[in-house]
């Protein structure tokens, strides 16, 4: 059966044939079969589209609100865009994801966890480049004053124009609403269509003047149809003052990464000076997004889990790469994007070998990210790794892949996995003078003779006083070629040098001696490179909610969240079949056993029918229900029911508690338990 995409392509082709036939003034008899083919293709498309049930986001959202997974913050004050509070099931799902993240990365990869502050002094973000560059362009609707992120607006406007064009060519009505006074859409010429597609592909290239020109050339307007102001840069960091003087500028961090880098020296010491190693951190990040939208997907305060893995710049192999090299990942390389091809399942070993992925460590983490996402319950068919195009890469980065997850909002970046090179550690060394380096002990010492500079402290100290250390560091950090140049300048008796504080200092010839010096080197110093997997937990939580949601058609269209047991907020529901007083001691002893085994549970002894009680718990994804019935009074056995198969088995309380624990820890499969205890067919609904 052809796919909807294939049928659409045929419709566009056939519509073109009909158009040309009409222009050529073909006879009615000749035209008729061509039109019939077009009509039957359209009917075929409609049939195929009807088969694919669109995802009912409104129903999921209603469930999430009803069960308080999350909700807009400050709702009774009218709310603020981009800020959300998590309710009890939302908190539990997030905590369970983070517990698995710790297990999967921090414990299984032996990482060093840090927790650094959110409040950060300005100097840190000056060094990292965030003060200057962590910004997006915004535009303002010149009539309503509404503000839009410039690239999002271009995407939206061109996307709509392309969709309208496609609908026109398919002979379908566009459901995009037209602002007042706007002309009906005309089909785009092939040239215009190609230009729009090229702009969308390379949107990150448009900055400053070229972005202003793009808005003018393409007549990009606000969704109201009003013109917009010229794009201007807007820094996304929240600024604040630290302390009572109001003079110490600070920011709320927009990522956890800088905290790791600033502690690099202590971390390396904690790791017994052994390289390579990784630090990990879970914490809040803050970004003053221009237009927060799409629920948890673009917010202003969110939880991030970040890893910074430090390696030698020339040795980016990974010790455990052999464990993942045969794993196939859906790689959407830059080359495939350019050729308008889709992602391709590729063994990560091959991708590293043929340099599609820059190095083993990057490839290793991509594989571990993929396994983690599947481990928590993300649908493997809705994950892809998209490589950054050359124009998207930061200038210092050699390669970067985003783990995108598909939801009803399209493909969304949920994890970034980048090679940040030595950029951050070098930047902080430059700003503070503190060496953030690692050392290689050489098997044999290297003896070298080269031009070197020595400080004459007695002449130096009295002149520079408190600045002496800064000036000295600037002088001693010079390479041989720079010393040579400096020596030439000193011939006149004095020369100046710029230190890390940005000031220029005058050095006289009696303050230093320059001459050949023999050195024996036992260790080589280097600035480590950093491979960074960076997880946006809110985006992962939302994607997981969508991937877990389904509707039990036969059961009054009740929504179910099919969380894996390890992720589910509550693992077991305890249901007495009626409110007979004899059940009370059994409920008590069962709950005690569950508590002792660390199995989170809820008792529902309401008078609702059993089926209704199951359904209520389906909505928060409770995977197991234990029923206490009259048989329990006789032999202390209970039944255990699984949410998705709705199958049950009967066993003692202890066996059932142990079974749930093993199911949560993924030590046993449900089917194996059904085989072991035999299916129980009896009470339900
Ligand atoms: N505003 C946000 N709301 C929720 N999660 C976010 C937000 N910004 C970033 N993230 C998450 O943090 C991760 C790492 O951040 P990174 O700086 O790489 O994102 P980004 O490239 O700026 O994202 P985008 O291009 O979508 O703004 C992202 O993969 C995403 O999961």
TrEMBL record:
GO terms for cellular component: mitochondrion. Pfam families: HGTP_anticodon, tRNA-synt_2b. One of its GO terms (molecular function) is ATP binding. Residues 170-189 are annotated as: Disordered. Residues 227-565 form the Aminoacyl-transfer RNA synthetases class-II family profile domain. It is found in: Cytoplasm. Its main location: cytoplasm. GO terms for biological process: mitochondrial glycyl-tRNA aminoacylation. InterPro entries: aa-tRNA-synt_IIb, aa-tRNA-synth_II, aa-tRNA-synth_II/BPL/LPL, Anticodon-bd, Anticodon-bd_dom_sf, Gly-tRNA_synthase/POLG2, GlyRS-like_core, tRNA-synt_gly. CDD domains: GlyRS-like_core, GlyRS_anticodon, WHEPGMRS_RNA. Residues 3-59 form the WHEP-TRS domain. The keyword Nucleus does not apply. It comes from the Eukaryota. Its EC number is 6.1.1.14. It catalyses: 2 ATP + H(+) = P(1),P(4)-bis(5'-adenosyl) tetraphosphate + diphosphate. Keywords: Aminoacyl-tRNA synthetase, ATP-binding, Cytoplasm, Ligase, Nucleotide-binding, Protein biosynthesis, Transferase. NCBIfam families: glyS_dimeric, PRK04173.1. Belongs to the class-II aminoacyl-tRNA synthetase family. Homodimer. This is glycine--tRNA ligase. It comes from Boothiomyces macroporosus. The gene is GRS1.
